[in-house]
Amino acid sequence: MTTHVSDPGRGESTRGSGWLLFASVIMIFGGIMTLLAGISAIAEDDVFLTTRNYVYELDLTGWGWVHLILGIVITLAGIALFSGATWARVVGIVLAGLSMIANFMWLPYTPWWALLIIALDAVVIWALCVAPRPLRD
């Protein structure tokens, strides 16, 4: 019976880990989409429809700036995740959590899109937590 155990001596690393690559790509995609949503909100475009009597009534332009900055930082963290560094994983988990909170507050403006990004952020957090740890030389 053979076992499928990674041999650290063969030069394998987490750089090629499927979950880490998946989380990196999804974070870059989500960051760019968040950035574009922020730009759209700042421009006060008629893309967004404000829902009345929502518990969290917020200024659309203010949330546009939050999404713009968060989108830039998430995209940069997604790019940093390609290195497989532990610090980039921790930053990715924290930013995905912040993105979930920001998109929860964004629900009155784009409910379906916000729910989709919340779900993707949950999968990114899971992927970053289950990806193999970096090997030490």
**Helix-strand string:** HHHH
What is the average of the pLDDT values? 80
Q: Indicate the multimeric state.
A: single chain
Largest sheet: none
Number of strands: 0
Task: Quickly give the structural class.
Answer: mainly alpha
The span between the termini is 29 Å
Helix percent band: 55-70%
Low-confidence runs (pLDDT<50, min 5 residues)? 1-12
Based on Cα principal axes, name the global outline.
Answer: elongated
What is the gyration radius calculated from CA atoms? 18 Å
Strand content: under 5%
Helical region count?
4
What is the gist of this entry?
By secondary structure, the chain is an all-alpha fold.
Description:
α1 packs antiparallel against α2 and α2 runs antiparallel to α3. The chain has four helices and no strands. By secondary structure, it is mainly α. The longest helix has 25 residues, at 18-42. It is 64% helix and 0% strand.
